[in-house]
Structure formats: structure tokens, C-alpha cells
Amino acid sequence: MIKLNIPISEEDIRKLKVGDEVFLSGIIVTARDQAHKLMVEEKPDFIRDFLNESVIYHCGPVVRKDKDGTWSFVSAGPTTSIREEPYQADVICEYHLRGVIGKGGMGEKTSQGLQKCGAVYFHAVGGAGTLIANSVKKVINVFKLDEFGSPEAFWVIEVKDFPLIVTMDSHGARLHKEILERTKKIAKEIS
Questions:
Q1: With 0-12 CB in 10 A as exposed, 13-18 as middle and 19+ as buried, what is 185?
Q2: Nearest by Cα to 168 from 157, 160, 180
Q3: pLDDT score recorded for residue 131
């Protein structure tokens, strides 16, 4: 198991290969459809420092506001990443991201962005939202909550030993694509 702490250098991220298992610790940001659109179209400064050499998590968290006014994650499962394909490569390069977390993998445009700008795609286990929430140690801040709603807001969170697997690396390897090609071949052989 590889332990990675944010901020992550480009040099360290380029050492990772498809199949590597990682425990990630540090400050990351959740971002989904509306957040990605905003980052590409308006390039907001409020989120820039949190993303530099960090990671975006495609997540629609379930959160609760505690009596003291702080927030806690109840569930933090990954959401399907391919929806961000039109934006992700631009976001990776513009904000100097070192990783994207989600489920299901992403396409060719994102793969090219990972290679060009030095980042990887981390797969988080779908259906394990409450378990993953145990890795969220603190909510640092939330942006666009009133405008976007809880699932789409930018949640800036501190994670500790977040379990992940590299399924797209900065060298062009794409586990999801390889599995799809093998599956199609097998399906063709048995039909």
C-alpha cells in the first residue's frame, strides 16, 4: 500500500501505475457537474489554492450540521465520473490537480490531460459511502452551498488514509478501457 500526502508533487504522481493501491491523506475538494462547469467557464479564485497539487473527488456527500455549527460527512461515496469528461482535462491542467477520485473511469480527453499535466484517476469503491466517510476527518469549508445545494457544492475536506486504486495513470494506461475491451472480446467469443 502506497501512502500519499497532499500536496502531491508531479514527480511522485508520475511514479504511480495502474493497479497501485493508495492511502490518501490531506485536504481534497468534492466537485461535481455544476462545480466543473463553473471552474471551466469562470475560473473562480476561491477554490484555486485548495486544488493546487491536490485531488478532486466526484462525490455527492450526505452531510449533517452538528450542534456546534460544524459539518460532518455521513456518507461520502463516489459518483460516476464520466459526466465530467467534457471538463476534467481542462480542470486538471488549469488548477494543477494531481488526481481525480470517482467511479467508473473516464475517457480519452481526460486520459490525455492526466498525461500532459501529471495526474492520475483514483477509483473509490462504489456502495461504500458510509465506510469512506470514516476517512473524512474534518470539513474545512464549503463553497456554493446555497447556490448549488449539498451534493453539488464544493466541500473542502481533510481525509486520512482514504483507500483508493489507480485505474488511469499519467502514462496512458487505463484499466477501465482494458477491462471493457477484454469483456467485449469474451462476449463475442461466447455469442
A1: exposed
A2: 180
A3: 85
Is residue 2 within 8 Å of 16, Cβ to Cβ? yes
What pLDDT, on a 0 to 100 scale, did the predictor assign at position 99? 98
The predicted structure's pLDDT at residue 127: 79
Q: What CA–CA distance (Å, rounded) separates 178 from 80?
A: 18
Cα-Cα-Cα-Cα dihedral of 164, 168, 173, 179, to 10°? Answer: 80
| 115's grid cell | 498525461
Where are the strands (E) in 66-179, listed by range?
Answer: 71-75, 99-102, 120-123, 136-143, 154-168
| Structural domains in the chain, sorted by start | 2-190 (3.20.130.10)
Residues 6+ apart with CB under 8 A from 11: none
Residue of 36, 58, 123, 176 marked active site: 36
For 142-160, the pLDDT digits (tens) are 999 999 999 999 999 999 9
Q: How far is CA 77 from CA 17, 89, 171, 175, 191, in A?
A: 23, 22, 27, 20, 35
What is this structure's pTM?
0.91
Whether 36 is catalytic: yes
Residues 54 and 59: their CA atoms lie apart, in Å, by: 15
Listed as ranges, residues in the chain with pLDDT below 50 are: none
Residue ranges in 85-133 assigned as alpha helix (H): 85-94, 108-117, 129-133
**Bridge partners for 27 per DSSP:** 158
